[in-house]
Amino acid sequence: MTDIIDTPDPLTRTYLPAQLIDREPEQETLSEAFAADTETRLQHVHLYGPRGTGKTHLVKQFLTTFPSTVTTCYVSGRPHDTQYKVLERLLQQLTGEHVGTGHHIADLQRRLRDAVNLETVVVIDEVEFLLLNDGDDLLYFLTRLENTAVITVSATHRSLEPEVDDRTYSSFQPRVLTLNPYTPSQVRQILADRARRALEPQSVERTALSRIAATTSNIAIGLCWLRTAAEAADDAVTRSLVDEVQSTGYAAYVTELLADFTPHHRRLYDTIELLDRDRNPVISGAVYEAYRDRCADTGVEPLSERRISDFLTHLELLGLIEATYHYGGRKGKTRELQLVDWDEDTPSSDSSSEER
DNA sequence: CGTCCACCGGAAAATAGGGAGG
DNA sequence: CCTCCCTATTTTCCGGTGGACG
Predict the structure, then answer these.
(1) Strands A148-154 and A45-48, how do they pair?
(2) CA–C1' A335–C17 (A)
């Protein structure tokens, strides 16, 4: 049993490649928005792109291009889903001071206002979680700050206009940037690049990558899948090995996504996965009942139905489940839930692997 | 045309924690 | 230590929804 993994880093989602593949136009647009000659006022930007299109990488890469006269901050709205948490994080990044809990929001806002005497660029990644949980107060505050440009990033909202108050949007007025999903050949190229950096030379079959690329355009899924295959490989990642570990790879992706959430999120997801075996939509009430039973089996105190309703929305925002909302009608007011079929067009006996 | 499905989702309150000043 | 302020998480409460069925 030989290990074909030399350096695991490039196969993880936190790995930031020095060069992004096929995102030059977007990098261009970003630089334009912040070009020195566009008046004195910094421009706000909203970046939209489905999961696994390289939003976070693009924006992090972009932050490194600023001269030292500009301060940059990066915060993700997923763990930091309240105004308070984001402000706390920003203060820590800007001034190094660590504020605990228990202070007034207005107090943190005042301290932050004092801290941004230099030009500052603030990125709020996965902003949909912040908006869902705590509304747009923070966005209103930040976009009205002097010397500060805000870059919001979302995998779910193409525009934030319908999501925030009019007064917030009017001070935000972002330039909107959209990332399109990668094409299969781009996915293959990106995965090949990562594999070359992480694995032994010649250890990945070309058709193995094609198989992944033909199944998903989400790079994060692709990476998990490839990594899972590489970990299981004896001496090479073959196409059949990739087929073999397909569901394990996706499971690893789910686990990675849910790692930032509570064990109840995980339990809830597992519950739906079980109910979804027959691929029929299931309504939220039934999901809650099954969840409660599951808790009873494991001796865990279940959360309330209202709370779980919010957690279902989280899973939906993560792109793990699909929900059809019924606001009344014969079915009453409810949601029909289903796992996302991420590998819908998985070719069971495929002969049309793209080759070039 | 009235009724009913079934829980969405807003609001308030309960609970548990921390910080600052007396 | 007490008091009074804050945030965070979860529970409790409940009005409201609209198409199909009778």
Answers:
(1) parallel
(2) 13
In chain A, where does DSSP find H-type helix? 24-33, 55-63, 83-95, 105-115, 127-134, 137-143, 166-172, 184-198, 206-215, 219-232, 239-244, 246-258, 263-275, 284-298, 305-317
Q: State pTM to two decimals.
A: 0.90
Q: Which nucleotides of C are covered by protein (CB under 7 A)?
A: 5-14, 16-21
Residues A299 and A319 in one domain: yes
What domain range includes position A268? 263-339
pLDDT band of residue A316 (cuts 50, 70, 90) is: very high
A79 is a domain residue: yes
Work out if A309's Cβ lies within 7 angstroms of strand C: no
User: Can you tell me the distance from the alpha carbon of A351 to that of A328, in angstroms, rounded to the nearest whole number?
Assistant: 46
- Determine, yes or no, domain membership for A187: yes
pLDDT band at A37 (very low <50, low <70, confident <90, very high): low
Domains contained in chain A, number: 3
| Residue matched to tokens 């660029």 | A121
* CB of A100 nearer than 7 A to strand C: no
| A329 CA: nearest nucleotide by C1' | C19
- Label residue A39 by pLDDT band (50, 70, 90): low
pLDDT-wise least confident of A19-23, A60-64, A155-159, A166-170: A19-23
Orientation angle between helical segments A263-275 and A305-317, nearest 10 degrees: 80
- What is the C-alpha to C-alpha distance for residues A137 and A217, in angstroms, rounded to an integer? 34
Give the CA-to-C1' distance from A339 to C8 in angstroms: 30
pLDDT at residue A38 above 60? no
Which nucleotide minimizes the distance between its C1' and the CA of A287? Answer: B7
Q: What is the mean pLDDT of chain A?
A: 89
Domain identity same for A242 and A137: no
> A244 with A220, same domain?
yes
Q: What is the CATH number of the domain that holds A330?
A: 1.10.10.10
